Amino acid sequence: MAKITLDNLAHSYLPNPTSEDDFALKELNHDWVDGEAYALLGASGCGKSTLLNIISGLLHPSQGRILFNDRDVTNDPTTKRNIAQVFQFPVVYDTMTVRDNLAFPLRNRGADAAYVAQRVQQIAGMIGMEDMLNRKARGLTADAKQKISLGRGMVREDVNALLFDEPLTVIDPHMKWELRTQLKSLHHEFGHTMIYVTHDQTEALTFADKVVVMYDGRVVQMGTPQELFETPQHTFVGYFIGSPGMNVLDATVTGDKAVIGGHEIDLGHGFAPLDGKVELGVRPEFTRLATGEAGLPVTIKRIEDVGRHKIVRADFNGSEINVIAEEGAEISPDMNRIVFDPAGVNVYANSWRVAPQGA
To answer: Is the full-model pTM beyond 0.70?
Structure first.
């Protein structure tokens, strides 16, 4: 297990980058705590896999250092970093049995035969392949092969870190849930430092102690699922986390008031003068329909009943605003206003969250 430090780290796939836009991975400075589980979350192309491959040693960074427990491993090959990595698509030895595939990393390091047998049986149980141990990997389905890859990544107990690059892409939905649960259980049992790359917020939020949200090659927020939901530090975090994501509206902010499309909104807190593009971010959970004169005038476009609650899609001057209403809530035709709970309103300048005065 290891604390992982990213020191002035950045990477460009161009031989002579001349501007920040040339970097697939913008400058990062972070410490990832020994023994915690992290999820790298973001849209395709945001730099998640690039960062993971730098940590594993498959890619050398254009600048900066990677440290494991304060030891510089930037120039060390993967074999010297003592990590296990599971890739998006299965990598197995087709001519070997499932048992031998799982045992290979242990036998390759000279582990005792009795320990190998015990550990292989344990991991086979975790991935649901106990009855397939004597089958050759050739001919197995893609999701079965990926379970072997996951098992081989988890079989060693002495690794510095376990790295997962979207490992459940080819796994069927029911098995995805089971394997995520088992990965979390493994983490609690053995305390490995785990880094899990995904574009799926459900995978990230259910797996990780800390979620690292990436956007356009940089980390825009690292925090617990609750922190990401309640105080998104960047508008992308608010948009990407949640279903539906945060409502983001252009605004003018003066003190404790905001004006959106000519309508005044109470913010509940005062803000210093702001420069640049100013926006309000309000999650649908802090938004409600109302009648009367207060709030923003809207037109309800449709109502989606998703079982646990209703999602109301409303239009305000050409911008969609989403509202989450309780399953049993009555939505009448005269509900043509939207009101925000001040406790759930976030203010952003140039996409970054601004803390209220006195906070």
So the answer is: yes
